[in-house]
Amino acid sequence: MPTPSPPMASLNITPSDTVTVVGRDTQLNCSFHHVGSNVPAWKFYDGVRYVEVTSGSTLHREGYNATLEASSGEYHLIMRNATLALAGIYECTLLGSSSFARAELVVLEYGPVCGVSPGHTVISNQSNSTFTCHVNGGTWGDLVWLKNGEEISRANDSTNEYSTRLQKTDNGAVYNCRYESQNISSKLWPQLTCIDDISVDVQYPATVAVTNNTIGPFLEGDEVFAVGEITEDGNPKTLNAWYWLEPDGRNNSDGGVLNLGSVSRRDTGTYTCVAENMYYDNSIGRGIALYDVHVHYSPSVQIEDLSDGKVIEGDVYLARCLVDAYPQGDMAWTDVNDDVISHDQELVIANSHRTNAGTYTCHANNTFFNGQMGYGNSSIFMDVQYFSGVNIEDNSNGELYREIHLQLIVLPTLIPKLTTNGLVQTEKFQPRRNLRSRQRSRTTLATTHAKRTQRFGTGRWK
Prior knowledge:
Elements: E1 10-13, E2 18-21, E3 26-28, E4 31-33, E5 39-45, E6 50-54, E7 58-61, E8 64-71, E9 74-79, E10 88-95, E11 100-108, E12 113-117, E13 121-123, E14 128-134, E15 141-147, E16 150-155, E17 159-165, E18 174-181, E19 198-199, E20 201-203, E21 207-211, E22 218-219, E23 223-232, E24 241-245, E25 251-254, E26 257-262, E27 269-278, E28 284-293, E29 295-305, E30 310-312, E31 317-326, E32 330-334, E33 340-342, E34 346-349, E35 358-367, E36 373-385, E37 390-394, E38 406-412, E39 424-429, E40 436-441, E41 446-450
Parallel strand pairs: 2-11, 13-20, 22-29, 30-36
Antiparallel strand pairs: 1-4, 3-9, 5-6, 5-10, 7-8, 8-9, 10-11, 12-14, 14-17, 15-16, 15-18, 18-19, 21-23, 23-26, 24-25, 24-27, 27-28, 29-31, 31-34, 32-33, 32-35, 35-36, 37-38, 38-41, 39-40
């Protein structure tokens, strides 16, 4: 029985046309099936003759630095620190066989150079990052910025600057710049990029949510609690601190649990759950979640007396009603007869009259979320002061006889303008000699007597 022939050698990976830039490393790839006793080699024309590089050999001469590396049937031609002299047609072959494939290596003097400011690591939404792509020696084509392989900016110039404010969704995104040179085939453009990708590290705070909380609104005395939860880790993931803040900014508790216990109106406000992580520059990221506590309570009423409780007849009396209540409700003023006279905050009594004196009350009410009513009130006394008037009762009919007593009864008919400790002050003037007597009495009756009246008593009394 005849011995079977060995399988024919064949190409597995065919080398592709490649572009590189002076000073960069590059390689051409090739592999075979069934190498057998054949010797893999790369050939290229150095301008004078074809030069061969076989497995494990290295070519070192002016303008050339090439090594053929073989591994598991793959034969890669590695070229270090490329020069313009390396440009040309390369052939991957098995010496002693007819299997070969050719590819062109294009070497450009200049290629794109990339950078980013302020750096690869940034803080989310803090400031703009500027990606700069530049080609020395001018350009014949476009510079195109790519994000994860997709075009985001294009410039027909030697420089392309692209500025953006990076968000947390950009974390880990890969940026690079492509040089679409008009001096090479467009199929080579994807290879002509910056040496290194720019992979951004965007740092941001954790995402916080409030869970397992009591649902408001509340009445005074209700038990209230809430739990903060990290629903998405920040970057960096490690927490520097975790706590709750009260509405006035004071620290309520460390950790994610807020327990207010039995609440009062003073507990009304917005509570903040804060999760902190530390960024690369030692600044602090804060993820927050808000929890609103609304405590319903009855009105607390105070009256601000803008007239100091006293007013002179004819003047304007002013008072203001101050109501503290949640939720807000209705208010009304009642007068001395308990009649509603206003629904405004300010009580204004223009051209006040003595009959306006008395007690005025501000009433306030509100309705809680459960339909219950709250109520509060406060009162103030309004004192109207006015000038006095006097009537004289003449019991002698205006005639006197010697040795007959004169009796004048002075009757104050109105409250005087000014009073001191409730004493009424009256004065009596006698005729001719300007005799005068003064009397302070708590009664409403002042009496003067003229005894043993003489001639000089004749005249007008007041």
